[in-house]
Design a protein that fits this description.
heterodimer; A: 453 residues; alpha+beta; D-Maltodextrin-Binding Protein, domain 2; 2 domains; 8-stranded mixed sheet; two-stranded antiparallel sheet; 47% helix; B: 306 residues; mainly alpha; MetI-like fold; 1% strand
């Protein structure tokens, strides 16, 4: 090669590089987050994009991702990856809106069971529906008991010893409740079931009840569920409905300085791993503890609830293999990471979002240098055999609304638990029957019926 | 048709073709398609399967359908007459010859151009049980008796009345239309009435109201149609005031589960587009029937008036 040709070589290479980059596949990713969670997502995406040269993930913050993914999928132009809530999986999958990930897993030389073994069991359950893997985890959450240590001290309770049983919890709640001596109005309560009121079904599971069993809705027919709602109603009866209304009318939004846990109006709440972020933002310096839910059923220790935001590939997506590569990246980690720079995938995302990892194996850096002050407790609860998640049901959205309606009626003394729950159960039985009939009509029941919860 | 008429027709159609295509694609087709889907088991993601009248039969037996209809009629029954009275009253006041009239007109019209989300957020604070302006005002009168204003949006008994009160905030559009109507009432009628010794109230009842009766009827019917389709305010405020995530179920205790909210959650959460289409058609028929009744009633009134 002549010297002139040698001189041209770098130029030729430089000219070739953009051509190579132009061939990279652009994967569209719709996600709900804005703010620091979106920045964390973007950081993971940037690291993924830099880790190879074939795929470029383009992130878009999209509100109501579920509805927009639904319409886009129906219109034949969905994103390659959609960030949904776990509650969407069964409904979307049964409507054939999601691509099962089984083939990708198999192509990577694994069985579904092998792939799912990377997660704590509760998150593995969340990713699956009807015998298929439909999702990877993006944002895992685990809910625990948060208590205000200052209020514990004022009530003469040990601030480092949360209630361990339901009886203790009720006792603590009474001791943490204060009233204005002149008016009798509540000024502080130990616990209020409707705060935050996002998961009213969890009280049933906490009491050992089942919401669905052997193809039957068991909301009202399982006596443990009724006992849970009796317990919920007992708070309104003890406090007085009018007193609760007056007290709760001063509660600000949960993510604001006037949220009742931050203002000291409520001493104990069940909240998620993400709550610490908000405590630091809105009530820095709050002296609080985090622990498992007290034992409501004797022997069931370390009870907790888990849920997750998930990554799915909508049916009709254009770049499904590339989408899978990204989902795989976000659901993997570097188990040997000893510095922040060595964090990969799930651990990088969860480290930046200050949440727990859904994976069983945590790297030394993630476990020991986590920004979350209670990460060890969150890990313990994620791994617990008694952690539960919402039922994997195609009619869960309807079920959830019915549970909320019953919960409202019960806590507002509008009906007895049995009445409210029987009404909801009767509606849900019809909904399940209708759903089953619809699947039959579309020729899906035979396949789904065997694996339905 | 002559050649010239045919040419004009073709030119007319050509000039309006964009609109015709838009109407056909974005209105006529969806309306026709949803009628078809209302007879189908349809989720939007899979091909529709014909199920005859099943959706309509289920509607008749659906407790929430009736509850949402009752909630909606309750809201319409209160908000339409109240809104009409307030808008008409304001229009009459703003029609008076007083200084700064233009400014007052502007002030009363402005709320109706505030985006619905912004006004919903504002009213959330007004209806806050503890710190809200509404209870701050009510407590001036109630607290001497040891009473306190209600929790409004967090109380099933008061959540619908709260939305009715809020609806009065947006009467500016109706006020403008009433004002136009009032300015068209012939001055000589008032002069004749005054000469006959009619008081201001009698002039309003016997001159103003009959003269603007068609305008009142138009506004009332438009308000009725709007009330039957109430969605955004209730959707935003019930969730914001009561939490419950994305449930969209008219919290608390379904007291603000209005027809369109139930329709929306059926369609976009449960993916029951066929059932939701049936609901939409039933709402259309109910609204059409109510509108027809209102039109008949008002026509009888103003055609009989002197």
């Amino acid at each position: 090669m002549s010297p002139r040709h040698k001189a041209c070589l770098p130029l030729l290479l430089a000219a070739a590089l953009p051509a190579g980059a132009a061939q990279a596949v652009h994967v569209t990713y719709w996600e709900k987050w804005v703010g620091f969670e979106a920045q964390a997502d973007q950081a993971v995406i940037d690291r993924f994009n830099r880790s190879q040269d074939r795929i470029v993930v383009d992130y878009s913050s999209v509100s109501h991702t579920d509805r927009k993914t639904l319409v886009a999928t129906a219109g034949g132009d969905p994103p390659d990856i959609a960030g949904l809530n776990e509650q969407n999986i069964a409904t979307f999958a049964d409507a054939e809106a999601l691509l099962p990930l089984d083939d990708f897993i198999r192509r990577d030389g694994m069985t579904n069971t092998e792939w799912l073994s990377r997660y704590y069991p509760v998150y593995a359950r969340i990713c699956s529906h009807a015998g298929h893997v439909y999702a990877g985890i993006s944002t895992p959450k685990v809910m625990a008991l948060y208590w205000n240590k200052t209020l514990f001290r004022e009530a003469g309770l040990d601030p480092d010893r949360p209630p361990r049983t339901l009886a203790e919890f009720d006792d603590y709640s009474r001791r943490l409740t204060k009233r204005d001596p002149a008016t009798g109005r509540l000024t502080q309560v130990g616990f209020l079931p409707q705060d935050p009121g996002w998961w009213p079904w969890i009280f049933c599971s906490w009491f050992g009840g089942k919401l669905f069993d052997e193809q039957r809705v068991t909301f009202a027919s399982d006596p443990r569920n009724v006992a849970a709602y009796d317990w919920i109603q007992s708070f309104t009866r003890d406090y007085g409905l009018d007193n609760v209304k007056v007290l709760s009318s001063e509660f600000g939004p949960w993510a604001s300085p006037s949220a009742p846990f931050f203002t000291g109006r409520i001493a104990m709440v069940f909240q998620g791993v993400f709550y610490d972020n908000y405590i630091h933002q809105y009530k820095p310096g709050l002296d609080y503890g985090v622990g498992p839910w007290p034992e409501a059923v004797p022997g069931v220790t370390d009870f907790a609830m888990a849920e997750a935001d998930v990554l799915v590939i909508p049916r009709g997506a254009r770049h499904v293999r590339e989408a899978w590569e990204f989902i795989k990246y976000v659901n993997s980690a570097n188990p040997d990471a000893r510095t922040r720079d060595e964090l990969r995938g799930a651990e990088l995302l969860d480290y930046l979002q200050v949440k727990n990892s859904p994976l069983r194996v945590w790297s030394p850096f993630f476990a020991e240098h986590n920004l979350h002050p209670h990460i060890a407790m969150m890990r313990r609860l994620s791994a617990s055999p008694n952690v539960v998640s919402a039922p994997d049901l195609g009619i869960w959205q309807e079920y959830y609304r019915e549970v909320i309606s019953s919960f409202d009626r019960v806590r507002l003394l509008d009906a007895t638990p049995r009445e409210a729950m029987a009404f909801s159960q009767s509606r849900l039985e019809k909904s399940w029957e209708r759903y089953r009939r619809s699947l039959e009509r579309h020729g899906q029941w035979a396949a789904l019926g065997e694996t339905a919860p | 048709m002559t050649r010239a008429e045919g040419k004009r027709l073709r030119a007319g159609v050509a000039f309006t073709s964009l609109w015709i295509v838009g109407l056909a694609v974005f209105t006529a087709y969806p309306v026709a398609a949803s009628l078809f889907y209302s007879f189908c088991d349809y989720s939007i993601l899979k091909a529709p399967v014909w199920c005859g009248l099943e959706n309509y039969r289920q509607l008749a037996q659906d407790e929430l359908f009736w509850k949402s209809l009752r909630n909606t009629l309750f809201y319409a029954g209160l908000s339409v007459p109240l809104g009409t009275a307030v808008a008409l009253g304001l229009a009459v006041l703003l029609n008076c010859e007083v200084g700064g009239r233009s400014l007052f007109r502007l002030l009363f019209f402005m709320p109706s151009i505030v985006p619905v989300v912004a006004s919903a957020m504002l009213w959330l604070w007004i209806f806050n049980g503890k710190y809200g302006l509404m209870n701050g005002f009510l407590d001036l009168f109630l607290s001497p008796f040891g009473l306190h204003g209600p929790a409004w949006l967090a109380d099933p008994s008061w959540s619908k009345p709260a939305l009715v009160i809020m609806s009065l905030w947006g009467t500016g559009n109706a006020v403008v239309i009433y004002l136009a109507g009032l300015q068209n009432v012939p001055a000589e009628l008032y002069e004749a009435a005054e000469i006959d010794g009619a008081s201001a109230w009698r002039r309003f009842i016997h001159v103003t109201l009959p003269a603007i009766a068609p305008v009142v009827a138009f506004n009332a019917i438009m308000a009725l149609i709007g009330a039957m389709q109430l969605f955004a305010q209730a959707y935003i405020m019930s969730e914001a005031a009561n939490g419950n995530g994305n449930a969209s179920d008219g919290n608390p205790a379904r007291s603000t589960l209005f027809y369109t909210i139930y329709l929306f959650s059926t369609a976009f959460q449960d993916l029951r587009m066929g059932y939701a289409s049936a609901m939409a058609y039933v709402l259309f028929l109910i609204t059409a029937a109510l509108t027809w009744m209102a039109a008949q009633f008002s026509r009888g009134r103003y055609e009989d008036s002197p």
